[in-house]
Design brief:
Number of helices of chain B: 29
Helix content of chain A: 25-40%
Radius of gyration of chain A: 16 Å
Strand content of chain B: 5-15%
CATH superfamily of chain A: Lipoprotein localisation LolA/LolB/LppX
Distance between the termini of chain B: 44 Å
CATH class of one domain in chain B: Mainly Alpha
CATH superfamily of one domain in chain B: Multidrug efflux transporter AcrB transmembrane domain
Largest interface: A-B, 49 and 34 residues
Oligomer: heterodimer
Largest sheet of chain B: 6 strands, antiparallel
Structural class of chain B: alpha+beta
Structural class of chain A: alpha+beta
């Protein structure tokens, strides 16, 4: 189980639900569900207790409602990831390689699928969700419910406006990871190359 | 007229009976001394103590654990039901532990991973570290930035080189069961349903008499409860097999024992038309009592299978009173003591020959048959004593006027036989019979399998198979036993074995295996890792480039190199070692050490044997395979025993009948046995060890018929009637065994039934006129 992955899953989930009322979870879902495709840049900061400086990496991402997620790491090293209903894949010299379905990874995949299918009970069961702010500036907090999850991390914070802007993950042991999504746009459709990446 | 000795006998016998009853009461003081342990019945083949210990270790979970899958198409509902049932089961008091969630002790896991960074590294990772340290570092850098590698238990700063993550990922994963992070449940998805795994460990084992039934009851109740919420339960456990075996045994004892009893009582009433004749059943009861008391006295307990097969004793025990009761057709008026005096020699011979036949079974290597032999021999003795000492006194003054129709029937049968003999002489008939036998024997197939002992219901085996398919857990009963002079040698030998097993896994002949060296590597390999780590600073520049401080790396290296070399005992302490713990047998008597390698999903057992052939200290333990070969070997020794018992019976019979007569009397049952074998062939039934045992027995019992016919007390028709009654009562009890759902028991019943029928048909040829047939000589 990867917490970052879970937060991404949460986003997709929220993006899929569609019910419009006062600004609540449903409305947030509705708001995030609108775009078919989101392109953007990300900065990932891994704050480790032992390091004065965070481990920072940058890249771009493509979140497509009907396909999945492309996560393209550019610096300090180049590495492409893809999450689809089939599982998690990593690109090497010879093309996309599915990561072996070890129990933890396969579980992530299952959750992701549940999320893609709009199965909100999956997240609601594992996390306590609380939302504050308004449509233009909101903050969603996920608190793990189970003892097992609590032993791994404290909480996940997601903030945003029209689209998601940050995901912050606080591990129980004191480390944390901050994902900042910048210049996100929903104006652009999938390019041929991206479509190819999803289907290859 | 009653002799003075005949006045005292009943009292003497009653005293003996009282003593035996008192002994029985003492034996049953703590409840029934019964056992249902199937393994007690099969030959003990394990030659040394270590192998035995290993076997017990492997079997324990089978006899104490229950695996249940709780399935529903909605994962939440499945989990909720598993939780509900788990709580109920825990509260039932039947289980020591009921578990449906993974209670991971993460701090302990972290400690074990950190401590085991040298010792627990997989071979592939060791190789990369030694041969391609640059790639090793590169992968670590990637992992630090990879948001999707899965979570690592140990934070990066405690393990900059990522060794713990590698150990975590290289642990062998068997099956398709996955952890549900939210609930902690272990879940497999199959057939459109989510299956939550629930494991329960009982307080006692499967051979406790009441526990399996209680567990089966609880499961049945849970099934009903689950079905109301549309939840499906699948369960597998040795306990369930034990429960079904017990229920089946009870059912069969009721059917066979009850059926035989009713049939025999009806037969007695029909033939003798007096209520008092039902007293002839006393020897049966006394026989059962003697059998049970002797069995418990000799073996400490009695197996339920002995009771099932022993219930056929009813039909043999009732033959003793029948011997003299049937004389009421010729002795008019019939008086009990004189009738007994007249038949006593025949009765005594019959007891001796039957006992010889039964006790011959005791020399087979099957504890089950030894018990049955002892039970039956003691039972027969009891029945004989009560028939000789007590019953005549009880029947004294009984005015027995038997129905005449059975006698007329027998006269009719004899005249039929005479008519037949006019058409075809005995040698011609014999030739025809031999042709029948040869034809049948050519068609006969031999088949032996331990599974014949188990009449497991289809539903249980189907469920176990479904569970194996859904979870991917396919434990096999075979395992490897590996010995070494010390731990280093043991692990080296395991590595050699694992290389071969890996090939089988690649060929998909084996699904997987579990071996101690997957948990802990040899001391020399740990040293290798230590040395390889020492060279790492030349290669770790990429880590420094992304910001990992050099001091942190150096500090970690120092820590790593100071880690002590782990031995098996230390490695087995942590939570990750749980599945490995049963594999470690520790120090052996010869000063060495030993461990097991367990196997999963075996497709071809013969391939396994080959793997161990030239590996020193490695041995395949295949109890089932060994048992099956013991079965085949026993078949031959059973045939030898049969001949030996016949020789002994000839010796006994030579006293009253002379060599020629004795040979003829023994030849008839042998010919009958041959005919039964041929009939099995014609019927398309396989020859099993059990049919052979049945024939062994029938030889002994049917010698009795030949004796009756040869003695001809009261004429041929009366003797044939006596034989008919004896055969009918015996058949009523043994023949009913044929309906048993345990293949071994039913096979036994079938062959005895056939043997009895042929013995009866052939019995008239035992007649005292030597010219009737050269049967004896040719068949012997």
């Amino acid at each position: 189980m990867n917490p970052i992955f879970k937060s991404l899953g949460a986003l997709v989930l929220l993006g899929l639900s569609s019910l419009a009322h006062a600004f609540d979870l449903q409305q947030l879902s509705d708001q995030l569900a609108r775009p078919e495709v989101i392109h953007g840049n990300f900065i990932q900061e891994k704050h480790l207790r032992a390091l004065p400086q965070p481990l920072t990496s940058k890249g771009t991402f493509v979140l497509a409602k009907s396909n999945g997620l492309l996560w393209l790491l550019k610096t300090p090293l180049q590495q492409d990831y893809r999450i689809t209903p089939q599982g998690i894949a990593r690109r090497d010299a010879s093309g996309w390689q599915m990561l072996p379905g070890k129990s933890a990874g396969a579980e992530q995949n299952r959750l992701f699928l549940a999320v893609l299918q709009g199965d909100s009970s999956g997240l609601q069961r594992d996390f306590e969700l609380s939302l504050s702010g308004d449509a233009q500036n909101w903050k969603l907090t996920l608190l793990p419910r189970s003892l097992l999850l609590k032993q791994v991390f404290k909480q996940i914070n997601i903030t945003g406006g029209e689209l998601v802007s940050t995901i912050e993950l606080l591990e129980t042991q004191g480390d944390s990871t901050l994902l900042r999504m910048q210049d996100s746009t929903s104006a652009q459709p999938l390019s041929t190359a991206e479509q190819h990446d999803f289907t290859e | 007229m009653t002799l003075p000795s005949e006045r005292r006998l009943p009292w003497l016998f009653l005293n003996l009976l009282l003593a035996v009853l008192a002994l029985a009461g003492w034996q049953w003081r703590d409840g029934a001394p019964l056992s249902a342990n199937l393994m007690e019945l099969v030959p003990g083949t394990a030659p040394d103590a270590l192998e035995l210990r290993a076997e017990q270790r492997m079997q324990e979970p089978l006899n104490r654990e229950l695996l249940m899958l709780v399935g529903h198409k909605d994962r939440e509902q499945a989990i909720a039901m598993a939780q509900k049932l788990g709580e109920q089961w825990q509260a039932s008091g039947l289980f020591e532990k009921v578990q449906w969630t993974l209670q991971a002790d993460l701090p302990a896991l972290r400690t074990q991973l950190l401590q085991g960074r040298l010792a627990m590294l997989s071979e592939a990772d060791r190789q990369q570290l030694t041969e391609h340290p640059d790639a090793f570092i590169q992968q670590r850098v990637q992992a630090l930035f990879d948001p999707f590698t899965g979570f690592s238990l140990v934070p990066s700063q405690d393990d900059w080189l990522g060794l713990t993550g590698r150990i975590q990922n290289s642990q062998p994963q068997h099956g398709t069961v996955q952890l549900d992070i939210g609930s902690g449940a272990l879940i497999a998805d199959a057939d459109g349903k989510s299956w939550v795994m629930l494991r329960a460990k009982t307080t006692g084992n499967a051979f406790d008499m009441s526990l399996p039934l209680q567990v089966a009851d609880l499961l049945k109740h849970s099934r009903e409860q689950a079905a109301q919420s549309d939840v499906q339960l699948l369960a597998a456990s040795g306990l369930l097999y034990a429960a079904s075996g017990q229920q089946q045994a009870t059912r069969e004892i009721t059917w066979v024992g009850g059926g035989a009893t009713l049939g025999i009582l009806a037969l007695l009433l029909l033939a003798f038309r007096r209520w008092r004749v039902l007293l002839a059943f006393i020897p049966v009861l006394v026989g059962m009592l003697f059998g049970a008391v002797t069995c418990v006295a000799l073996f400490g307990h009695m197996h339920v299978m002995t009771l099932v097969l022993g219930s056929s004793l009813i039909g043999v025990a009732v033959d003793y009173p029948l011997h003299y009761l049937s004389k009421s057709w010729s002795l008019k008026p019939w008086h009990s003591w004189p009738a007994l005096r007249l038949t006593l020699p025949g009765l005594t011979l019959s007891l001796i020959t039957s006992c010889i036949g039964y006790l011959a079974l005791a020399w087979t290597p099957f504890p089950a048959l030894t018990q049955i032999a002892v039970f039956s021999a003691a039972g027969l003795l009891g029945a004989y004593l009560s028939a000789v000492c007590l019953l005549p006194a009880l029947l004294k003054g009984a005015d027995i006027r038997p129905a005449q129709w059975p006698l007329r029937l027998c006269e009719c049968l004899l005249s039929l036989r005479d008519a037949l003999l006019k058409q075809a002489s005995t040698p011609v008939l014999l030739a025809l019979l031999i042709a029948f036998c040869v034809g049948g024997l050519l068609k006969l197939d031999s088949k032996n399998d331990i599974r014949q002992w188990i009449g497991a219901p289809q539903q249980l085996t189907d469920e176990a198979k479904t569970i194996a398919r859904i979870t991917g857990f396919q434990p096999t009963s075979q395992f490897f036993l590996v010995r070494g002079a010390n731990q280093q040698e043991l692990l080296v030998r395991q590595t050699a074995l694992n290389e071969r097993l890996d090939q089988l896994v690649n060929l998909e002949k084996l699904q997987g295996y579990l071996s101690l060296n997957q948990l802990v590597s040899q001391p020399s390999e740990q040293q290798q890792v230590r040395e390889a780590l020492g060279k790492l600073p030349q290669f770790w520049q990429p880590l420094l480039d992304v910001g990992v401080p050099a001091e942190a790396l150096h500090a970690e290296l120092t820590k790593l190199q100071a880690l002590p070399t782990e031995d098996i005992d230390t490695a087995l302490l942590g939570p990750l070692a749980e599945p490995y713990r049963p594999l470690w047998l520790g120090p052996t008597d010869d000063g060495g050490v030993a461990a097991m390698v367990s196997l999963q999903g075996l497709n071809d057992p013969t391939l396994l044997r080959v793997q161990a052939l030239d590996l020193p200290g490695v041995k395949l333990v295949d109890r089932l395979g060994e048992l099956n070969s013991v079965f085949a070997a026993t078949q031959i020794s059973a045939a030898e025993l049969k001949l030996a018992s016949c020789a002994l019976i000839v010796l006994v019979l030579m006293l009253p009948f002379g060599l020629g007569g004795a040979l003829r009397i023994v030849a008839l049952p042998l010919l009958a046995a041959l005919c039964s074998l041929a009939s099995l062939g014609w019927l398309g039934q396989p020859l099993t060890l059990f049919s052979l045992f049945g024939l062994l027995l029938v030889t002994a019992i049917s010698v009795d018929y030949a004796i009756l016919m040869r003695e001809q007390v009261g004429g041929a028709a009366v003797s044939l009637l006596g034989t008919l009654l004896a055969a009918l009562t015996t058949w009523l009890s043994f023949g009913l065994l044929a309906v048993s759902s345990t293949p071994a028991v039913s096979n036994f019943g079938l062959s005895v039934s056939l043997g009895l029928a042929f013995s009866f048909i052939l019995a008239p040829w035992a007649g005292r006129h030597p010219h009737t047939a050269p049967v004896a000589e040719s068949a012997a």
